[in-house]
Structures are given as C-alpha cells and as structure tokens.
Amino acid sequence: MPVNSTHYLFLSLLLFSIGIMGALMRRNAIIIFMCIELMLNAVNLLLVAFSKLYGDADAQLFVFFIMVVAAAEVAVGLAIIVMMYRRVYSVDINILNRLKH
Amino acid sequence: MEIYDILFWVLSAVAVSCALGVILSRNPVNSVMFLILTFFAISGHYILMNVQFLAIVNVIVYAGAIMVLFLFVIMLMNLNADVEPQKGQLVQLAGVISGGILFLVILAGIKSAKPEIMDKASTDIGLISNLGKVLFTKYVLPFEISSVLFLSAMIGAIVIGKKEETKDPDAKAERVN
C-alpha cells in the first residue's frame, strides 16, 4: 500500500496521543514539558505533510514560526522550573501546587 | 514496495517507539535521549518529503539547542537518578485511558478522510530559496514580530532566572524547610 495522506494523519495522531498520555502520567515537570514538545512536533509533521500534499509553502512557514515560539517557550519555561527548584528543591508537580493554598 | 514506503514505515516505527520510550523510561536523561531520537526520526520524515530547510532547522533547533537545554537543566538539578516519585496506578491508568479516548475520537473523525497519494516527485517548495522568498515577502511582519518575541523571551528568562537577594529571614527559614 503506497503511503498516502492518511498514514501521516495516523502517525501524527499517534505521536500527539503519546504526548498527551505522558503529560497526564508523569510527575516530573521537565518530562511534562518534553511531552508538550512532542505534541508540537506531531503537529509540525502533519503541517509539513499537507504542505507537501498541496504544494503550498505557507504551512512550512507556519512550522518555522511554531519552532520559533517553541524555542522562546522553552527558554522561559525552563527558567521558571529552575526558579521553582531553587525554592522547593523539587520539580515534582504534586509539590508545585502553592497556588491552591 | 518502493524505497519511499519502506523508509516511511521504518521512520514511523522509530518515532513512535522512541516517543513511548520518552514517557515510559524512569530516568529523565533517558527520556531526553529518546526525545532526541524522536526528533531525528521526524527530521528523517521531513527529508523524505524533500523539506530540507525544516529538516535542518529541526535538527539544529530542536535536537541541538532545545534538548541540550533540557539536558543541562536535568544535570543541573541532579535528577539523573531514578528517584522520581510515580503517580498512583489509578492516576496513570486514567491518563492512559483519557489519552486513548482522545486517540479513538480523532481516529473516528479522520477514518473517513479520503486518502490522497503523496506526490513523490521532488518539489522545490521546501528548499531554502523558495521559503526565503515567501518568508520575506508575505510573512515579513510575523518574522519581525517573532524577533521581538525572542527578545522579550530572552529578557524574561534572565529576569526569572536571576538569583534573588532575599534579606527577609522568614523567606530563608521557609526555604530551609
């Protein structure tokens, strides 16, 4: 069976679901962050596949901008995690629930 | 079966198994390594679709810069031991079930999508000259705005990550606890 657009849809959906499961299962804030990166990459893959399918370069620029935003997001997010770690000496999300109290 | 299809299946298997490795491995350093492998597999998919610029950017930015940043933070916090407390079995099961339900719902949605054969003839839309033309004509304003975003993210990261000088003894006592 030759590769068609549905294969890319399934692959991307599978990677996205794995990312969701990881974000719900793990307690380490850094791993959750990495799962978010995985979900972003799944979406990127789908955008590129449809850009190739329809011969349109716009989607690839969207992927480029997603990468830009992801890089900025990682810088700020890791800074926040490091700051939290300095205060409570843990990156366990069950401890980082100060806003609840 | 053409070489394109074989490479597609191999890369997909690598990407999915390494993604599973990310969420299943107990050691955060192993998770980072698996995620780097996943990104390389996705870059392989990009090269397969002749999207050369994004493939290179994916390797440099994601696998190179971002994951090194993650690894650096993990090493800094000394988390490379298997000491992470796990969520309860019930919560983990609930996570898997809700992720699986999302998978099934979207699967049911895209099941009826008409499969369109990927055009395997090489196109030049993914090459850097074509993307550069589009980026600097149609998307020049978002490009400039993203540079401002980068600047503000950089300043924000520095401000957040700065060591704060607390003269308050209460805060220090709380930190010891």
Quick gist of this model?
Chain A is mainly α. Chain A is built from 3 helices and no strands.
Detailed description of the structure:
The complex is a heterodimer of chains A (101) and B (177). Chain A is mainly α. In chain A, 77% of the residues lie in helices and 0% in strands. Chain A has helices at 5-25, 29-54, 58-88. Chain A is elongated. Chain A starts with a helix and ends in a 13-residue tail after the last helix. With 177 residues, chain B is mainly alpha-helical. Helices cover 74% and strands 0% of the residues of chain B. Chain B is built from seven helices and no strands. Chain B has helices at 3-24, 28-48, 52-77, 89-110, 128-137, 140-161, 169-176. In chain B, α2 (28-48) packs antiparallel against α3 (52-77). The relative contact order of chain B is 0.07. Chains A and B meet through α1, α2 and α3 of A and α1, α2, α3, α4 and α5 of B.
Task: Note the main attributes of this structure.
heterodimer, A: 101 residues, mainly alpha, 3 helices, 77% helix, elongated, B: 177 residues, 0% strand, globular
Record field, number of beta strands of chain B: 0
List the helices and strands of chain A in order: HHH
The main pleated sheet of chain A reads as: none
Largest sheet of chain B: none
What portion of the residues of chain B fall into strands of 2 or more residues?
Answer: under 5%
Beta-strand residue percentage of chain A: under 5%
Distance between the termini of chain A: 56 Å
Oligomer: heterodimer
Low-confidence stretches of chain B: none
Shape of chain B from CA axes? globular
Class derived from helix and strand content of chain A: mainly alpha
Helical percent range of chain B?
over 70%
Question: With helices defined by DSSP (H or I, 4 residues minimum), what is the helix count of chain A?
Answer: 3
- Average pLDDT confidence of chain A is 88
What integer value in Å does the Rg of chain B equal? 22 Å
**Individual helix count of chain B:** 7
Q: What form of chain A results from the Cα inertia axes?
A: elongated
